[in-house]
C-alpha cells in the first residue's frame, strides 16, 4: 500500500480535511505542533515504549490531551506498518476501540496521534504501577471484559473488510476516565481477504497470548484473537500473568494452572487476591470458564467473539449450561484431554520488552514450560 495514496480519501484536493457525515474525524498534525504538545518529546511525557516506538502524552492548544506514538526506525517495513495502522484506524470508530486523532508524516518522522487514556493500560492495573491502588474492583473488571470483547467483535464482524487484531493482550486494552475499555494497537492488524484464512510467514504477537496455530504455522484468523482474549480473561479474573515463572527455567502457562482448578470447580481460589474476596462468584466462574473455552488449542472448538459477549453477559442460559457441561471441564475426560496447549514455548526470536515477551518469528521450543492439561 503506497503511503501517499492512503490519505487521499481523508483529504480533499486542496488539502483541507473532508468530513462526511458520520465519517471519522481525523487530521494531519504538523511536527511543530506535536513537538510543542509533548514539550519536545520530553522524557517526563513518555508513557511507555512498544515494539514500534515510544508513546508520549501531550496537550494540544485547545486543551485536549493526546497520546503520540513516535515510530523509532524508519524503513520500508516500518512505512508499511505505519500505513496499515493509520489506514485501519482512520476507518474505525467504536466506543471500545482507541480513537485515532490523526497523524504526522514529515521528513523521516512518522507519528500517530490518539486520544489520551488517563487510566493507562489494563496491565498497569493488574501487574504494574497501579496494581496496589486497588482501582480494579470486580464490577470494573466485568465491564472491561465485556467492553473489550465488544471492541474485538466489532473488528471481526462489523468492520469492512473484517480485521484480525493479532496482538490482543492486557497492555493493548487501555482505560478511559470512566475505566471503559479501549482496545488499541492495530499495528499488526491485517485486512482479511474475502473469506480467506490469512497465512503469513511473519508471526507477530506476544508470548503467552499467541494461539498455537498462529505461533507454529503462521495461520492467522479471527479465532487467534479469541484465543488471546481467553488468556486476557483468565488474567483479568485471577490477576496472574499469562506465563508464570515457577523457577529460573520452568514457566507455566496460565491455562495449565487454571484448567485443573476449573475442573474441580474451585473458582473462589482462583480469584485475584487483590480483590480481597470482593467479587461476584457466579460472574468470576463465568469469566474463567469463557476464558478457558476461548484458549483451547483447537481453533474450531473456540467460540466467536459474538458468542463470548453473549456468554459473558449471560444472555442465554442454555449456552451457559452447555459451557459448564463442555467436555473440557469434565474430570472423567481430563486424562485424555490435550485441548489446552502448552505450545506457547516457541521461544526462538523472543525479545524481552520488560513487561511482555514479543515473538519475532515462530520456532521450536528452547525453554521448559510445565504443563498438566
Ligand atoms: N492512548 C494512550 N493513552 C495512554 N497511554 C497510552 C496510550 N497509548 C499507549 N499508551 C501507553 O504507552 C505504552 C506503550 O504503548 P504501545 O502501544 O506502543 O506498546 P505496547 O502495546 O505496550 O507494546 P507493543 O507495541 O510492543 O505491543 C503502553 O504501555 C500504554 O500504557
From TrEMBL:
SUPFAM superfamilies: Protein kinase-like (PK-like). One of its GO terms (cellular component) is plasma membrane. ATP binds at residue 69. InterPro entries: Kinase-like_dom_sf, Prot_kinase_dom, Protein_kinase_ATP_BS, Ser-Thr/Tyr_kinase_cat_dom, Ser/Thr_kinase_AS. Belongs to the protein kinase superfamily. Coiled coil: none annotated. The keyword ATP-binding applies. This is (wild Malaysian banana) hypothetical protein. GO terms for molecular function: ATP binding; protein kinase activity; protein serine/threonine kinase activity. GO terms for biological process: signal transduction. Residues 41-321 form the Protein kinase domain. It comes from the Eukaryota. Residues 340-373 are annotated as: Disordered. Keywords: ATP-binding, Kinase, Nucleotide-binding, Serine/threonine-protein kinase, Transferase. It comes from Musa acuminata subsp. malaccensis. Signal peptide: none annotated.
Amino acid at each position: 500500500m503506497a503511503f501517499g495514496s492512503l490519505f487521499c480519501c481523508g483529504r480533499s484536493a486542496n488539502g483541507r480535511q473532508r468530513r462526511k457525515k458520520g465519517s471519522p474525524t481525523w487530521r494531519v498534525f504538523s511536527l511543530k505542533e506535536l513537538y510543542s504538545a509533548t514539550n519536545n518529546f520530553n522524557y517526563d511525557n513518555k508513557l511507555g515504549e512498544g515494539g514500534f516506538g515510544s508513546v508520549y502524552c501531550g496537550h494540544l492548544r485547545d486543551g485536549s490531551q493526546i497520546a503520540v506514538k513516535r515510530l523509532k526506525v524508519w524503513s520500508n517495513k516500518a512505512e508499511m506498518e505505519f500505513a496499515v495502522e493509520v489506514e485501519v484506524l482512520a476507518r474505525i470508530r467504536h466506543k471500545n476501540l482507541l480513537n485515532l486523532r490523526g497523524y504526522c508524516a514529515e521528513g523521516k518522522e512518522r507519528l500517530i496521534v490518539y486520544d489520551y487514556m488517563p487510566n493507562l493500560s489494563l496491565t498497569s492495573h493488574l501487574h504494574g504501577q497501579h496494581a496496589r491502588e486497588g482501582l480494579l474492583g470486580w464490577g470494573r473488571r466485568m465491564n472491561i471484559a465485556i467492553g473489550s470483547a465488544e471492541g474485538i467483535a466489532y473488528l471481526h464482524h462489523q468492520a469492512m473488510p473484517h480485521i484480525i487484531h493479532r496482538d490482543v493482550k492486557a497492555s493493548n486494552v487501555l482505560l478511559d476516565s470512566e475505566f471503559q475499555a479501549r482496545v488499541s494497537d492495530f499495528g499488526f492488524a491485517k485486512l482479511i481477504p474475502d473469506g480467506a484464512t490469512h497465512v503469513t510467514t511473519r508471526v507477530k504477537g506476544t508470548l503467552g497470548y499467541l494461539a498455537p496455530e498462529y505461533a507454529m504455522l503462521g495461520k492467522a484468523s479471527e479465532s487467534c484473537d479469541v484465543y488471546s482474549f481467553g488468556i486476557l480473561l483468565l488474567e483479568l479474573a485471577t490477576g496472574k500473568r499469562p506465563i508464570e515463572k515457577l523457577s529460573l527455567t520452568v514457566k507455566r502457562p496460565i491455562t495449565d494452572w487454571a484448567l485443573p482448578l476449573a475442573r474441580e470447580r474451585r473458582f473462589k481460589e482462583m480469584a485475584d487476591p487483590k480483590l480481597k474476596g470482593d467479587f461476584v462468584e457466579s460472574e468470576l466462574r463465568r469469566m474463567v470458564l469463557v476464558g478457558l473455552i476461548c484458549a483451547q488449542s483447537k481453533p474450531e472448538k473456540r467460540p466467536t467473539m459474538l458468542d463470548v459477549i453473549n456468554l459473558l453477559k449471560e444472555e442465554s442460559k442454555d449456552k451457559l449450561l452447555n459451557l459448564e457441561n463442555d467436555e473440557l471441564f469434565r474430570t472423567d475426560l481430563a486424562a485424555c484431554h490435550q485441548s489446552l496447549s502448552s505450545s506457547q514455548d516457541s521461544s526462538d526470536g523472543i525479545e524481552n520488552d520488560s513487561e511482555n515477551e514479543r515473538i519475532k518469528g515462530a520456532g521450536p521450543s528452547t525453554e521448559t514450560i510445565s504443563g498438566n492439561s
